[in-house]
Design a protein that fits this description.
about 160 residues; elongated; mainly alpha
C-alpha cells in the first residue's frame, strides 16, 4: 500500500464501523455521566423508583425487578457521584482513543489495544460476579475491535 493512499476492503470498513459504534456507546456513557453529575440525587432516586414500579417489570419477585431494585434502589448520593465520575472518565478516555484511531494517529493503535484489553479483563472479572449477557456482548465487541486494531496497525503506513 502506498503512503497517503486510503485503505479499502471489508475488514477496514468493519474496523471503522466498529470504531463508530464504540464511539456512539462512549458518547452515551459521557451523556449518562453528565446526567448523573448534574441532576440532583433526589431526582435520580425518584426516577429509579418509578422504573421499579413500571408495568414493564412483571412482578416484585421477578428477576428483572430484583436486579433493578438492587441496582437503583440503594443508590446513595456518594454512589451517584462515583458512577458519574466513572462514566465520564471511561467514556472520555474511550472517545479520545477512538478519535485518534479514526484519524490514523500511530501511537493510538498500541494504546487502544492496551486500554481495550484492560476493559475486557475488567468486564470479564465483573461477569464472573453478575453473569450479565451485556458484559459478554461488550467484551466480544471490544475483542473484535482489538483484533481489527492490531490488523490495521500492521497495515498502517509508517512515517519514513
Amino acid at each position: 500500500m502506498n503512503p497517503g493512499q486510503p485503505r479499502a476492503g471489508a475488514l477496514h470498513r468493519l474496523f471503522e464501523s466498529g470504531l463508530l459504534l464504540k464511539s456512539a456507546l462512549a458518547a452515551l456513557e459521557v451523556a449518562a455521566g453528565l446526567g448523573l453529575w448534574l441532576l440532583p440525587h433526589r431526582l435520580v432516586a425518584d426516577f429509579a423508583a418509578r422504573l421499579a414500579r413500571n408495568d414493564l417489570v412483571e412482578s416484585r419477585e421477578g428477576p428483572v425487578f430484583v436486579r433493578l431494585d438492587a441496582a437503583l434502589g440503594g443508590l446513595s448520593s456518594a454512589g451517584q457521584d462515583f458512577y458519574a465520575f466513572y462514566l465520564l472518565a471511561h467514556g472520555t478516555v474511550k472517545l479520545a482513543i477512538l478519535v485518534l484511531l479514526l484519524r490514523g494517529v500511530g501511537f493510538a493503535y498500541p494504546l487502544a489495544v492496551a486500554v481495550f484489553s484492560g476493559f475486557v479483563a475488567l468486564q470479564m472479572l465483573r461477569w464472573t460476579q453478575t453473569h450479565s449477557p451485556m458484559l459478554l456482548a461488550l467484551s466480544a465487541l471490544d475483542a473484535l475491535v482489538i483484533w481489527l486494531t492490531l490488523r490495521e496497525w500492521r497495515e498502517a503506513p509508517r512515517a519514513a
